[in-house]
Amino acid sequence: MSQNSIHWFRKGLRLHDNPALMAALRDSRHIYPLFLLDPWFPNNTRIGINRWRFLIQTLRDLDNSLKDLNSRLFVIQGSPTEVFPELFEKWNISRLTFEVDTEPYSRRRDEEVIRVAERCGVEVISKISHTLYNIDRIIEENNGKTPMTYVRFQSVVAAIGVITLHSKDHEEHFGIPSLEDLGLDTSSLGPDLFPGGEQEALRRLDEHMQRTSWVCNFEKPQTSPNSLNPSTTVLSPYVRFGCLSARTFWWKLVDVYRGKKHSHPPVSLHGQLLWREFFYTTARGIPNFNKMQGNPHCVQVDWDSNPELLSAWSEARTGFPFIDAIMTQLRQEGWIHHLARHAVACFLTRGDLWISWEEGQKVFEELLLDADWSLNAGNWQWLSASTFFHQYFRVYSPIAFGKKTDKYGDYIKKYLPGLKMFPADYIYEPWKAPRSIQERAGCIVGKDYPRPIVDHMVAHKKNLQRMKAAYAKHSPEENPIEKGQKRKAKSSMEMPQKKAAKLY
DNA sequence: TGTGTGTTGACAGG
DNA sequence: CCTGTCAACACACA
Fold first, then answer.
1. How far apart are CA A387 and CA A300, in angstroms?
2. CB A191 within 8 A of CB A334
3. How does pLDDT run across A272-282, given as a tens digit for each residue?
4. Which residues of this protein are annotated with the site description Electron transfer via tryptophanyl radical (predicted)?
5. Average pLDDT of A286-314?
6. Which nucleotide is nearest to A222 (CA to C1')?
């Protein structure tokens, strides 16, 4: 039997570890590798120019790889339910294959496409390969409940057992558009530090996996948010687009770890992949995951609406050099270290500006090369102490935090060259520098660089109280009255006992 | 229902 | 480098 198949690339933009693509190849006479530029995405999400470039580079790389196999990538603009019926008929298609995607829009889209395919008599095959595990099964194994902690998540996946890795492996052509073809403004393109594509992804993976002791000793919290070159792998954009299979990454790490002492989840590189899996699971299980309202696990906070403060943050004009340097790196290069994300996210939300994490989520969605719906929403909830993380009294200092790993402010000077001449004593707080030093540095605060938009000490103390009030009102699954009584009992009884126990 | 724990705080003090 | 304190959270498990 010979068939004509379409393999629909969405994420999973690779040839390696691609079970759905393999399913398309089986017994096929013709296979049509297809990528749709679905207008839903630019119409409903924010895609910055740097991520557009990453996508186009990735598609070119995929096309090149397919050329080596005597094939080409077909790139078509249009919504799936309109495009597919035409293509099914035009190419006489009997089979459609694609990778499972767990995001809300993707699930709705795929359900509709499956219905369209059924009507056209086209068999649909979908395979899991974007995640290590079957995300739905994780929730099932946890009695239908979404695991809410990493520890809980780990115990559930441990029970599921080892993940598997898929074994390795025309006529007219619809070309890959350029950024200009797509009508995009390319004037703000940043340096091309992380070019898209499977070949680049595999090259970078290989490069890092050769550093065996670095891999074995990797502990995420020990890596620096403000080194001049990334202190971590920056494989995240590649995993996000599926240029690199998370499963291939996982098993490469198994090879490197074998027979050696190595770090473990949550801090290890394996642990990082499991964090991704954790947030994919919670994003699948929790309704309205990218919103506060209607999200049953999210603490409801009375965030301020303050467009001036928000744009100062997103445009690197807060007057805190550490924060502004990070936001500059983000905008120019499309990637910042995870702890740098913590620092700016805390600053925007519960730490200083008291602006909703949803606003920060939008900015990251636009600017990060690795912006991923599930991870972005999950991490913003984490950092704003809305869901998953509740120790809201742990606040990052926009002054002190960066000093731990960059005493002299070299990172700040790289991204904010206007502050280059400031002495180390004042680089994190230039407004404290005497006028003479500001003049010598050629940078007057309030004129050449903004004054701080908030007093951190005042703001964070006030915000702590506002968080306390929000938590007092928060009652995810319980009767609020009952909860209030429990809280009272705890605070009057437990604390003195604890202190007494310590004294004796 | 109490207790231990939680990838990644800041700060003072030894 | 480590520790405890600050003031205090929810989740998970026994």
1. 10
2. no
3. 999 999 999 99
4. 303, 357, 380
5. 97
6. B8
